[in-house]
Amino acid sequence: MASLFLGILSTPATAQTVGDDGGVASQALKLPSDMTVFGKSDPNVRKATAIVNGYIITGTDVDQRLALIITANGGKVADEERERLRVQVLRNLIDETLQIQEAAANDIRISKAEVDDSYNRVASNFRRTPAQFDDYLRSQGSAAASIKRQIEGEMAWSRLLRRNVQPFVNVGEEEVKQVVERLNAAKGTEEYRIGEIYLSAAPENMEQIVSNARNIVDQIKQGGSFAAYARQFSEASTASVGGDLGWVRPAQLPDELARTAAELDVGQLAGPIPVPGGVSLIYLMDKRKVLTSDPRDAILSLKQLSIAFPGGTTQEQATARAGAFAAAAREIKGCGDANEMGRKLGADVVDNDNVKLRDLPPQLQDILVNLQVGQSTPPFGSITDGVRVLIVCGRDEPQSAGAPNYEQIMAQMEEERVNKRARIYLRDLRRDAIIDYN
């Protein structure tokens, strides 16, 4: 639920980093040194935290948006981390306000009906009616108004960029051809799908930024969402998509990140890594070879046999039952024999078609990638979840990968340039804004 929640609700974290000790970024933005005082405010008192060009952002606004983030992280956020998130939420709310105000200045306004339609879709994603979703948000310390404000901001900024930025971004035919040539030249080399959290730093506040980065690593390793932290803290243009850089080759990365990525296994996190202008955290989401078919892109047809353990089963009893189940599973002669064997074992049998091998847990990928039709995995599971085996009933091997087409490459290059100009646009809005802090 966390990734879905933040994917819908989080605002791009594109503001400058402000160290907890009030460093260079704090001075540049003229933020007061006592920013943490609003953390002690009574959330029931609508006291202004910041006034942005006349629009009031209250402590309640901050608390309600913060509650969404904490809920998306399973409610497990340390007090120190909560305060750092609170500061970031205020920055995001300020940016959101500036975006809505600039859109309005350009005669772009999002109607209440549009916001409500989008909010209703969010509610349906959580399998709730709008009224039920209202109640759910209140139970988490948030409110429907907080999400609706965020929806309004995202829609307004998107339309503003389409009108004022996108028409002036051009990608030449020769540029696209050069990208295609580089892809073909790199065929067979390894590429990575990487998530990045970038934090800018100057020499005088580097120590504090590194400390902040280590705190983020600790939170993610304790179960926090990498995408959620990327959206709230990363200063890269990919913050709005949870830090996802997409598929990149080592040559496209800074040397420091390329070296680290080559040493990571899928699912591993590394950092903080010193890079020009700051530090980065990287998460290896996947890897493959350029323009080469990957066995892990196969589509499988699977049959699953599973047994559950009754309450009170000891580890010793579970191990014995799993052993007997494993011995019986080895005797299964293909999927045609699975249903009968399942009946004899008292196991539940479920068919799973069109399963992408790459979507399965890494441990199962390593096993299934080498299995032939009719073969089964070793048993896996736990006392709580029971034990199961998967039998391969069919496999559609991946086709040889081809280069992205002209239109895809063009769209990607245009998006990158729009994002770059959008960051500059927002930076200028911050620079010209009149913001009062309490």
UniProtKB/TrEMBL annotation:
SUPFAM superfamilies in alphabetical order: FKBP-like (SSF54534), Triger factor/SurA peptide-binding domain-like (SSF109998)
Record's keyword terms, sorted: Chaperone, Isomerase, Periplasm, Rotamase, Signal
Membrane spanning residue stretches: none
Coiled-coil zones: none
Domain PpiC: residue ranges: 189-286
Superkingdom of this protein's organism: Bacteria
Entry's Gene Ontology molecular function annotations: peptidyl-prolyl cis-trans isomerase activity
Name of the protein this chain belongs to: Parvulin-like PPIase
Organism ancestry: Bacteria, Pseudomonadati, Pseudomonadota, Alphaproteobacteria, Sphingomonadales
